[in-house]
Design brief:
The protein is 36% helix and 18% strand. It is of the alpha/beta class. Helix 1 runs parallel beside helix 11, helix 2 packs antiparallel against helix 17 and helix 5 packs across helix 6.
């Protein structure tokens, strides 16, 4: 994956944000109630499979979101429906479950206390939390918690197995997020999924749970990194235990794209995996689809068209030899428009304010002024279209593919791993942001340069970029020089391609990204998704 984009994603998301059982058999120790109240009857009824099921409610305050005190609504009846049918009530409930994987601010030994309390409140037993959930994360670790609950749906007793991934407090796991590898599923997420499956299989064996039984149901979720891992885990559960996907209930939230078409098995239906995300969130577009990556299952977008809908309409498609449903994004343009900054004065100000340019006077002189009275750019753009186009052009302009990223002579993957290690192992965000490394970017040259001339200009400019910070992050002098040139190449094209050629969309990628940085960061935050899903769920009306 292209480093400029990855550093931007890292900068955006990194801002955001006890007892460990010794065996897989589970732990039913008393749980102190800190964040949730006991379930009480909500007075609501959930109808499914010809029966009516009581809906219970609890008040929940997430320790990482104390201002987001809310109710949640739980019912065993949620698991009486076909998992391939999107359910707004189960989506809201599962987002709450995923958020219990955020942990607390109380230190590593206390991280699993929230998910333990959640399992206790909804009536689960045999709680198992892996050792990594409550210890300082490493580069390739994953925290996961699971339990079991006996429920009766459709007149039959079933065993529900909820599985929750750690979904915040990642620390050095950030390194793994940027480990894509040269083949197969995105390597870092795939490694995490393998660890979770080992825990799950061991847990079921110790608890005597037969995953092949028609009476065993899986409920799987996570957020962000935890969501990407959940996507892969649910896919593997379907592959191993549930080919038809009629016993696996998986909702992921704001997930990166970890899967590949080539890894999907014939005869398996992954329509039970529902990926719910704000379509303005850049995290859900990486690793790039142009590397072949995707979400397994069905993507559901918010904002929706109106209350009680997450999508405008449902199409039927052929999937694994059978007809299944797939949601289609709504055309509600105003909900996710972001301004483009076409005027040079505004663009310059945005860059100066956002990236703390060292030499403002030099920067001003290097900007080629435009006649803004005759040039008309778009007033605003669809954010997802903008982000996708930026990724596409970034890869094209810098000549980067998956192999180049993961195993080139100076592999970009290694650079990103070093940078993430620095950020998450005691290092502090430098006063100059990651983007600022090469944003002495208006090169002050004729945009009509030939390819060879452009290469010489890029080489000259990149040599003048301050590479001390990069080397402070652990990169070698050679790697720092290479990375600086890489980012400058994108900056040059962002300038010259936008204004020198006809038919260009009119984006100023870096200026628009700078102007919308705060909003783009916010779109990955759970506050937004909570708000949207509660709006669509009439239990909250």
């Amino acid at each position: 994956m292209a480093v400029a984009l990855l550093v931007a994603v890292a900068a955006i998301v990194a801002i955001a944000a006890v007892v460990v059982t010794s065996s897989h058999g589970g732990d039913d120790a008393p749980v102190e109630r800190k964040y949730m109240t006991d379930l009480t009857d909500s007075g609501k009824v959930y109808s499914a499979d010809g029966g009516d099921y009581k809906v219970m409610t609890s008040t929940y305050t997430n320790p990482l979101m104390p201002e987001a005190k809310l109710q949640f609504y739980y019912s065993d009846g949620y698991f009486a429906k076909d998992p391939k049918e999107y359910d707004e009530h189960l989506a809201s409930m599962t987002l709450v479950m995923a958020s219990t994987g955020f942990g607390t601010n109380g230190g590593y030994s206390d991280l699993s206390s929230v998910v333990r309390e959640f399992f206790d409140v909804i009536g689960c037993g045999d709680v198992h939390v892996n050792s990594m959930f409550d210890t300082k994360p490493g580069e390739d670790t994953i925290g996961v918690a699971m339990a079991q609950k006996k429920i009766t749906v459709g007149g039959t007793e079933k065993t529900l197995v909820p599985v929750v991934m750690r979904s915040a407090n990642y620390d050095l796991e950030w390194v793994s997020n940027f480990t894509v590898g040269t083949e197969g599923e995105s390597e870092g997420f795939a490694s995490a999924a393998t660890q979770v499956m080992d825990e799950l299989i061991g847990y079921m064996k110790d608890c005597g749970i037969d995953g092949d039984s028609e009476n065993v149901l899986f409920w799987i979720s996570g957020y962000s990194r935890g969501a990407a891992t959940s996507n892969l885990v649910a896919k593997r559960v379907v592959d191993m235990f549930d080919n038809k996907g009629d016993r696996t209930f998986c909702y992921t939230f704001e997930a990166p794209t970890p899967g590949l078409d080539s890894m999907m098995r014939d005869g398996c239906d992954y329509g039970c995996i529902h990926n719910v995300f704000d379509r303005r969130d850049i995290v859900t577009l990486v690793p790039p689809t142009e590397y072949g990556f995707k979400h397994y299952g069905i993507d559901h977008f918010v904002p929706g068209l109106q209350a009680s809908t997450v999508y405008e309409y449902v199409d039927t498609v052929e999937y694994a030899g059978e007809t299944t449903t797939v949601t289609t994004e709504v055309d509600n343009f105003d909900s996710w428009a972001t301004p483009v900054y076409p005027l040079w004065d505004e663009y310059e100000k945005r860059l100066w304010d956002t990236f703390h340019m060292k030499d403002h006077a030099k920067f001003q002189k290097s900007v080629l002024k435009r006649d803004t009275t005759t040039e008309k750019l778009e007033d605003d753009v669809d954010i997802r279209e903008f982000l996708w186009d930026m990724i596409h052009d970034l890869l094209e302009w810098t000549g980067t593919d998956r192999q180049t990223y993961a195993s080139g002579d100076l592999n970009l993957q290694g650079c990103m791993q070093k940078i993430m290690h620095y950020f998450n192992d005691g290092g502090k965000m430098p006063s100059r942001t990651p983007f600022d490394l090469a944003l002495i970017l208006m090169l002050g040259s004729d945009p009509g340069l030939t390819g060879d001339e452009m290469a010489r200009v890029v080489d000259t400019i990149s040599k003048g970029v301050d590479k001390t910070t990069l080397q402070g992050w652990g990169l070698s002098e050679e790697e720092a020089e290479f990375l600086a040139k890489f980012v400058v190449t994108f900056a040059y094209n962002d300038y010259s391609k936008t204004f020198a050629e006809t038919g260009i969309r009119g984006y100023i990628y870096i200026g628009t990204l700078a102007g919308g940085l705060e909003s783009i960061y916010e779109y990955h935050m759970p506050f937004y998704l909570f708000s949207w899903l509660m709006t669509y769920d009439d239990y909250y009306a």
